[in-house]
């Protein structure tokens, strides 16, 4: 590994970064929970409809 890191650094670090991917997939969610990064609230898909009768503004007629 030492020889490859000196003679062919692009290949060596490509493998290092490539092998870090699966490890991050496994290690990142518990670490994020540990530091307090909770799941995001769901994005609403509809606009809330107000309760009660609709107030129609006056004075803006054509």
Automatic annotation (TrEMBL):
Keywords: Membrane, Transmembrane, Transmembrane helix
Entry-linked InterPro entries: Nuo9.5
CDD domains: NI9M
Residue ranges of the TM segments: 12-31
Name this protein carries in UniProt: NADH-ubiquinone oxidoreductase 9.5 kDa subunit
């Amino acid at each position: 590994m030492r020889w490859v890191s000196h003679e062919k650094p692009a290949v060596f670090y490509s493998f290092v970064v490539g092998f870090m991917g699966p490890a991050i997939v496994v290690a990142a969610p518990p670490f994020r929970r540990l530091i307090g990064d909770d799941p995001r609230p769901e994005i609403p898909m509809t606009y809330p409809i107000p309760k009660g009768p609709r107030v129609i503004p006056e004075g803006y007629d054509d």
